[in-house]
Amino acid sequence: MTILDSLLFCILIAIAAGFGSFPSSSHHRRQCFLTNENSVSCLSRGRLSHRAKLHSITSQSASVAPSNSADTEKVKRHRTYHIQKPKTTRQKVRTLFQKAQYLEKKGLWRKAAQTLSDILVLDPRDSHSYLALARLQARRFPNTTRATIAFHNGTAACPNSVHLWQAWAVFEQNAGRSERAKELFGRALEIDPYNPYVCHAYGLLLEKDNATAAVNLWQHALEKKSTAALVCSLGTAYIAQEQYTKARRLYAKHLNKVSSDRERTEVALASAWLEERYFSNINGARQLLTESLRNATTSASLVQVALARFEGRRKNERVTPFTSDGGIRKNAERQKLEQACELNIQDSSSLPADGRVFNALASIEVKARRLKSAREILHRGLERHPQDYSLLQAAGKVEERMGNYTGARTLYRASLCIQPSAPCLVAIALLELHHPTSKKTNFALVKQLFEEALLIDPRHAPAYNAYARCVFEQEDDEQQARSIFERGVRAKCSDAASLYHGFAKLELALGNIGSARKLLIEGRNAAKRQEIGKDSPHRERALFLMHTLGMLELNSNRIVAALEIFNDGVAQYGNSSQLLLGAALCEVRLGNVEKARILFEKSVMNDRRHAHAWQAWGVLEMKAGNWKAAKTLFQCGIKNMPRHGPLWQAYAVMESRLGNVTEARALFEKGINQSPNLSSLYQGWASLELREGNSEDAKVLITKALTLDKHNGAGWLIASEIEQRLGNRGLSMLLLRRGVECSPSNPSLYRALGEGLLGEGKINEAREILEKGLEMDPAHAPLYHSLAELEARVCNVQGLSKLHQRAAAMFNSNVMEPSQNSSDAWASKIKAARLRNVPTKVTALAESASRGDAIFENDADVSTSSLLDDLSSQLLVGGISNLLTMDDEEP
Question: Which domains does the chain have, with CATH numbers?
């Protein structure tokens, strides 16, 4: 090489180095993809970079996801698509398809669809683009013909594409057109008779009506290729037919035949569930999980969580979650997850695919109300997995629970920047609904966020649940809310318990008891089907569905049916404090006090923070005359849940009934300090002062109670009684009428007002009020007595006979065979509670009170002593009745 050649070579190297230093424009072009898109996905954009967003969290969580070397490596590995000039049409198609995938991942649906359409202009026979476009249209416009047209065009251009025919068949199946779906599946099988994807999807369609045909189809497909979907579906079918040994052989045969690590993990988890649940082979199940963890690579975190849940189920049922000194014992699930997190942090040789174990451990801490601990766990997880969008979403939820709404929004947006997901969009929607950035909630934006969440994942049940509840509560549009739930039912959501539970609670709020019962039973059956062959991650939601169903039956006076449901729930999902309490209440109603005590004890030992369980148990002992035991139970409940006002109320009322007035006053005062906005505490204290003859003090207290809650019917009764004591009979009657207007579902108000009118000699008006009370609550027995006394007073024999028949149809002394009308009575009460105004007759009576004809006469008054006794018992037993609606909130 000459000197001139050497110099030329050096110059060329220098030029190349200079060009190499120019910044890449790929990031700028990728940002261009995200602009000018009319979509709520703009939340995933912003001027701050991902790392800058993580460091912009406000004071209490300055940076939940600090950067480190792993972050740098992740950024280096992050795929970017440089738009260069390809030389061939195939290269152009490949580049545009990658761009479309990126746009769809970021939620830019219109741009993704346009890009796929551009590909089909370049190559009208590209089956992958037809398939991607058709699926995108099916998700964006599920109720239109756009997807059908896209599938038709695709299969016409690519008639031998099995995946196009299969995707079209699944779309028709989800739309409820089963016969058309079967025809399309048949076309796909003509092309490839052993295609595992077609056989699996077609088998799921056939299984509902012809399980044998589905089993034969899956067996046929497994002759050529083993996939986790085929193996697990066939195993589930065997389990449903109670052919457990056949399922065991199936899993053992195909465990090592499936191709990928993820699929081997799926089969191993199904096999472990079979050994644990149906063979009670605990050691065998543990061995399968341990071996799967040893061999897993990308699915290691999934197995770690499954193993922790397994250990939790095995040990938590036999060990109380509390130590002897009242501290919290770390259960087996929590210990396993902590070990997995430490291993995840210390083992730098291999990085697991995600931070699932950190998320699972933080979830346990959140449920135990240890939010600071959950925040620290997620902080450590994000140090290890800074690109895990689900960890960022969980961290945002923790910040939201702690009141740090700015930090929560920042974390949610950071999660969306990595990957838009339905749970994150739902979280943002609920945050905007309850804590909007502006003074007024932008409900149109909230609904758009829900719709985009369902666009990303049409089978995400919590999105349907939250969306429908939001529409019902904010717009009072029950038809639209019901239609949203029906969309979820048609989508066959993966979390059936959440969807059916929310749908049933909507019907329950409307007083449609029969519809609610039907939905809850369907949801229970669907949830059981979903966990036949594997450990469902939604078991806790199924547990709450069982609790609501049991309480529905208990409220309908179907005691035996309710007890069976609670016992079934405990057998299905293990010891649950809510289910055990429900079973205890059933035993109380059946008169089995000893059994009830055992169940109450199990309930509080399972969750010492379950205030309703302490309260109900204390009331039981108090009614039995075990005052010391009741006192101890109330004190234990207050120690564990000091801010639960009804516990203070029940304890104070008990002391007042024992004559310990000073102690009762002190308890009411302490309860008000802990729960200053609970009207029943002021009401109970007013009742005490009225009994002691301190009418003025009672008047001040009941005024405060009614200021806090004007819909409290018992408060209006006490206020009326106070004025009666002070000699203001006219004002007393006015208060009763006002009480009926404010609390139209309270039957005691109708009875008191009717008897007051009867005492004034206004027979017809009294009868109308008592009849209206029975219409509002047909199961309130004292109203029948008052109306019977009225009819006897005027010698109305025919009216007495009709009333007797009506009461006989409503009440049944045999609790084993409840009355057919018990559910209808409860439905009437629910509907009455939703009324904004009382019917015209009662309003007219209130207006006519000012004219005052004979209104101040006091011929027949409500008995003071009996009223106070009734109120005292209502204060005590009311806490138990409140359990029927307060204990079934979803986590």
Answer: 88-225 (1.25.40.10)
